[in-house]
Task: inverse folding
């Protein structure tokens, strides 16, 4: 363990940074449109079940591994299982960081653009006209240069926060941004619910339509439960590695999951109440945020304010998540290669930005692989990471604890900081086994459906 490893400044700071990682574009952009297209509450139920059974246990597992080793994923697995292949689970995490941040940075750039457009009153001319809003969005994302410029600015913000360190950068900004996100979203949700007809949005979100739930939507819900809590790629191992031994890890994990879920629900409420009140199409898909919302916000009194609030909070959520992804890569180069924080962050921030440029160009600005892969490079990166890399990384982490590191060692670390809570190792073993089995089954179900054309479930 390194003597002068950086540490979080406070317990609250750690919880806010970890939930800042969890709460992101996944909660506010992905979840509402996925639920809208995959059976509303039916999707939400599968996703919540996955979060409770799989998510919670893997957050705890990652925190424990990180705090025990005081290292980021590759070093952590290597320390607990020297000279074995387990370190590859750590490398899978670093690889996932590249894959995720490449498209995440592009969406972060879109959000930044929309912050500026909304502040300058640019949504006004789109009032009640989703077609016009759709054209504006499409023209923007299929342009060659302008989305790249915004993406570069977004990535530069991330790099700047991380270069300032764990406490002086990541923790400081999470402490400012997380409370603001909650307040702004709560105001927007109340605004939506008090609009005439807004309550129809609530029933859309909370009414299950099981006929829309396919094997694909189940694996999406599982993948999303990993994505939204930032699991399966060592983000929580890395953040856990900056902890001292006073934190109650179970408690912290429950906070992170609860905040993440509450914010996804609040976002769903804010968005669907507004969309329904103004008679727009809720199942719009990825365009829900960038196309439908600009045209509906501007129909409300004070529309510029509502629109700006929304995109500013989305920007902050995206930023606190993106920094946690880049931190996994930075920490790898600091821990394993002895690089300085500044050098690691700037160099790999730049490399990931370049990969992201291809995601951006695949939207229509110049790179076209849709013909032979059936989807854009952007979607390939999104699907690959969320549907497979994260769940597999999470499953292997659970298997690692069960089969290699051992429940007794795991329990010994978990119990530090939670002396007054009783938790039996039998229970932990059962929960981790179920988590690994559920992930294995859902991935099998999806692959089976791909091969045989019909799923076992869904
Ligand atoms: N949890 C983030 C979100 O919901 C995304 C993320 C995934 C962050 C994996 C870190 C690691 O947007």
Result:
């Amino acid at each position: 363990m390194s003597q002068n490893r950086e540490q979080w400044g406070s317990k609250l700071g750690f919880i806010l940074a970890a939930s800042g990682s969890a709460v992101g574009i996944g909660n506010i952009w992905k979840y509402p449109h996925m639920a809208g297209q995959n059976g509303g509450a039916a999707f939400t139920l599968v996703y919540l079940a996955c979060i409770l059974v799989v998510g919670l246990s893997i957050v705890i597992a990652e925190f424990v591994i990180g705090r025990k080793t005081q290292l980021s994923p590759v070093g952590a697995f290597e320390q607990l299982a020297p000279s074995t292949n387990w370190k590859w689970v750590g490398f899978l995490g670093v690889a996932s960081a590249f894959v995720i941040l490449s498209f995440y940075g592009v969406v972060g750039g879109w959000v930044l653009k929309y912050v500026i457009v909304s502040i300058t009153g640019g949504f006004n001319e789109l009032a009640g006209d989703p077609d016009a809003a759709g054209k504006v969005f499409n023209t923007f994302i299929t342009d060659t240069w302008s989305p790249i410029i915004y993406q570069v600015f977004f990535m530069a913000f991330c790099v700047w926060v991380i270069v300032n360190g764990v406490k002086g950068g990541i923790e400081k900004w999470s402490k400012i941004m997380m409370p603001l996100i909650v307040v702004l979203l709560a105001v927007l949700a109340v605004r939506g619910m008090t609009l005439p007809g807004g309550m129809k949005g609530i029933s859309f979100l909370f009414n299950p339509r099981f006929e829309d739930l396919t094997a694909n939507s189940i694996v999406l819900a599982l993948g999303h439960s990993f994505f939204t809590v930032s699991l399966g790629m060592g983000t929580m191992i890395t953040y856990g590695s900056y902890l001292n031994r006073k934190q109650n890890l179970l408690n912290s994990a429950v906070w992170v999951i609860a905040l993440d879920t509450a914010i996804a629900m609040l976002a769903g409420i804010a968005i669907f109440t507004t969309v329904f009140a103004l008679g727009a199409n809720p199942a719009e898909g990825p365009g829900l945020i960038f196309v439908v919302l600009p045209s509906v916000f501007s129909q409300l009194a004070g529309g510029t304010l509502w629109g700006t609030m929304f995109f500013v909070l989305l920007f902050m959520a995206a930023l606190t998540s993106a920094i946690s992804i880049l931190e996994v890569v930075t920490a790898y180069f600091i821990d394993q290669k002895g690089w300085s924080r500044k050098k690691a962050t700037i160099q790999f921030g730049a490399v990931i930005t370049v990969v992201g440029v291809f995601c951006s160009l695949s939207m229509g600005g110049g790179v076209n692989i849709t013909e032979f892969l059936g989807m854009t490079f952007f979607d390939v990166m999104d699907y690959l990471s969320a549907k497979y890399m994260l769940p597999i990384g999470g499953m292997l982490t659970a298997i690692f604890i069960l089969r290699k590191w051992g429940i007794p060692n795991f329990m010994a670390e978990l119990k530090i900081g939670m002396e007054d809570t009783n938790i039996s190792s039998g229970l932990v073993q059962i929960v981790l086994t179920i988590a690994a089995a559920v992930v294995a089954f859902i991935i099998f179900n999806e692959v089976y459906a791909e091969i045989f054309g019909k799923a076992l479930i869904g």
The chain is about 75% helix and 0% strand. The first helix runs from residue 11 to 22. The radius of gyration is 21 Å. The domain at 11-452 is CATH 1.10.4160 (Hydantoin permease).
